[in-house]
């Protein structure tokens, strides 16, 4: 068997893979960041919903209950920098939760912007 002129192409696949490895890593990092951003939106919406529902409780409701319920189920890494706003408006308790989006690993660093979730629940009448 004759060898091609100019040598063999042994190892060519390895060299091409090593050349594409940074691009593959960048794509995976971006996908992971998009997942974290989406999860942060879901956490904000769920926390706002829990806060609005807690505010409507007849005995223990109000802004304090709203704030506590909104933060209760948040994972610790997302609590830092989280703000809540609970108020009444047109017969509703409205809760808004703003959470900072983590950079790659929750708890390490956050982007300078926040995502927000809002929810409302009907105010219960007292007899």
In summary, what is this structure?
By secondary structure, this protein is an alpha+beta fold.
Explain what you see.
The chain has about 130 residues and is an alpha+beta fold. It has a single domain (about 10-120), classed as Pantoate--beta-alanine Ligase, Chain: A,domain 2 (2-Layer Sandwich), CATH 3.30.1300. About 45% of the residues lie in helices and about 25% in strands. The protein has three helices and three strands. It has helices spanning about 10-55, 65-70, 75-80; strands at about 85-90, 90-100, 110-120. The chain has a three-stranded antiparallel beta sheet. A hairpin with a 7-residue loop joins β2 and β3 (about 110-120). α1 (about 10-55) runs antiparallel to α2 (about 65-70). The longest helix has about 45 residues, at about 10-55. The termini are far apart. It comes from Streptomyces natalensis ATCC 27448. It holds the Pfam family TadE. Keywords: Membrane, Transmembrane, Transmembrane helix.
């Amino acid at each position: 068997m004759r060898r091609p002129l100019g040598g063999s192409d042994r190892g060519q696949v390895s060299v091409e893979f090593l050349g594409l490895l940074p691009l593959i890593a960048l794509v995976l990092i971006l996908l992971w960041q998009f997942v974290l951003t989406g999860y942060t939106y879901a956490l904000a919406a769920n926390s706002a919903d829990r806060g609005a529902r807690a505010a409507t409780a007849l005995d223990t409701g109000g802004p304090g209950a709203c704030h506590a319920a909104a933060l209760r189920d948040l994972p610790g890494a997302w609590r830092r920098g989280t703000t809540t706003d609970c108020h009444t408006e047109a017969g509703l308790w409205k809760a808004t939760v703003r959470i900072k989006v983590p950079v790659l690993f929750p708890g390490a660093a956050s982007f300078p912007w926040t995502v927000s979730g809002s929810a409302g629940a009907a105010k219960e009448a007292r007899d």
